[in-house]
């Protein structure tokens, strides 16, 4: 696999090594093996507007929860502010990952509707404080990336000197009750966790393995059908990410059951090279590809996806 798709300096930005235990490899393979039948009679140019957390956005594509992109560009802005500006201009939902309250406040100043994802810190007070800060700043939703627990040494991970820890069901329940805005469990890759997140009171889950944190992980999109069935009628929104590199990948993930999808490394290179302009160009391209595929399959709007158009090619 070419590094072109997963750009960035090794160490800072995860780069797939192409080994069989790298979940990114299986993810790519799964998406590539999903083929689509054609339904063009009665098809029209689709409407991409999508309701997320009760607000209507121009697309079901969302910005990623990125972190650690702190290098300020010549214009004085950090990459996380740049893609927030792109989100605002494209009228799409913005997400951010681990960052200080100060950085989060700067991102909110862009005016982009933003979801804050907080690390599963061992110190739960930090989580509660960051939830409160996000709510005060006007975040649309908050959440925890529950899949970032294990480190490579077999213990709890430590990020920027901050120890991470377990997220028990009772913790998740507390965060949901504590938050003044909808709470999201990011990093669900099983029906078991999806049901626990629902029972804890989460308003949404992100079906994801966080760019392949878990070795040998199932492709997130492959888990969607079962998770959707398990959460049917609950009102819990199901989002998904994982190696979406084109609007066609986004289409397949939406057809498989995601209510909206998160972009990730597909915007990293244009973001780091060109800032907001590069992100805007990339997202427009992805929206066009999504729209094209919806036209080929007679899907008039984002609430009308149908997985019966998909066929899994023999692996
Ligand atoms: C540089 C970088 C930083 C990230 N930081 C976070 C983070 O702080 N919190 C989080 O939940 N996910 C974080 N992620 C994971 C993304 O939100 C997303 O789940 C992941 O990249 C999967 O999408 P992709 O395969 O399309 O890249 C980060 C990803 C990258 C590439």
Automatic annotation (TrEMBL):
Record flagged with keyword Metal-binding = no
PROSITE patterns reported in the protein's UniProt record: FMN_HYDROXY_ACID_DH_2 (PS51349)
Sorted alphabetically, which InterPro entries does this protein's record hold? Aldolase_TIM, FMN-dep_DH, FMN_HAD
One Pfam family in the UniProt entry: FMN_dh
Region annotation (Disordered) ranges: 1-20
* Taxonomic lineage of the native organism: Bacteria, Bacillati, Bacillota, Erysipelotrichia, Erysipelotrichales
Instruction: Cite the PANTHER family for this sequence.
Output: 2-HYDROXYACID OXIDASE 1 (PTHR10578:SF107), S -2-HYDROXY-ACID OXIDASE-RELATED (PTHR10578)
**GO molecular function per UniProt:** oxidoreductase activity
Keyword annotations of the record: Flavoprotein, FMN, Oxidoreductase
Q: Which cofactor does it need?
A: FMN
Protein origin, superkingdom: Bacteria
Source organism per UniProt: Grylomicrobium aquisgranensis
Record domain FMN hydroxy acid dehydrogenase: where: 1-315
**In its UniProt entry, what is this protein called?**
Alpha-hydroxy-acid oxidizing protein
UniProt keyword annotation of Amino-acid biosynthesis present: no
Membrane-crossing residue ranges in chain numbering: none
């Amino acid at each position: 696999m070419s590094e072109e798709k997963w750009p960035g300096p090794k160490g800072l930005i995860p780069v797939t090594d192409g080994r069989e235990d790298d979940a990114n490899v299986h993810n790519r393979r799964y998406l590539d093996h999903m083929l689509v039948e054609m339904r063009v009679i009665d098809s029209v140019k689709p409407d991409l507007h999508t309701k997320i957390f009760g607000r209507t956005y121009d697309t079901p594509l969302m910005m990623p929860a990125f972190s650690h992109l702190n290098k300020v560009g010549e214009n004085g802005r950090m990459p996380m502010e740049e893609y927030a500006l792109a989100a605002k201009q494209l009228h799409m939902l913005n997400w951010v990952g681990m960052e200080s309250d100060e950085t989060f406040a700067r991102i909110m100043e862009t005016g982009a509707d933003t979801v804050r994802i907080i690390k599963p810190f061992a110190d739960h007070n930090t989580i509660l404080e960051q939830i409160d800060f996000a709510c005060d700043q006007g975040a649309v939703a908050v959440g925890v990336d529950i899949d970032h627990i294990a480190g490579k040494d077999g213990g709890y991970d430590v990020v920027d000197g901050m120890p991470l820890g377990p997220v028990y069901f009772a913790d998740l329940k507390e965060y949901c009750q504590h938050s003044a805005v909808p709470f999201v469990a990011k990093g669900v890759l099983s029906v078991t966790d999806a049901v626990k997140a629902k029972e804890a009171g989460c308003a949404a889950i992100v079906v994801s393995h966080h760019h392949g944190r878990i070795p040998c992980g199932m492709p997130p999109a492959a888990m969607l059908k079962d998770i959707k069935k398990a959460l049917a009628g609950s009102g819990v929104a199901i989002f998904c990410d994982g190696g979406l590199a084109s609007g066609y990948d986004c289409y397949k993930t939406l057809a498989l059951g995601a209510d909206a999808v998160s972009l990730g490394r597909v915007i990293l290179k244009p973001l780091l090279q060109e800032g907001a302009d590069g992100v805007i160009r990339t997202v427009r391209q992805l929206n066009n590809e999504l729209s094209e595929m919806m036209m080929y399959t007679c899907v008039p709007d984002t609430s009308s996806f149908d997985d019966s158009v998909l066929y899994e090619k023999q692996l």
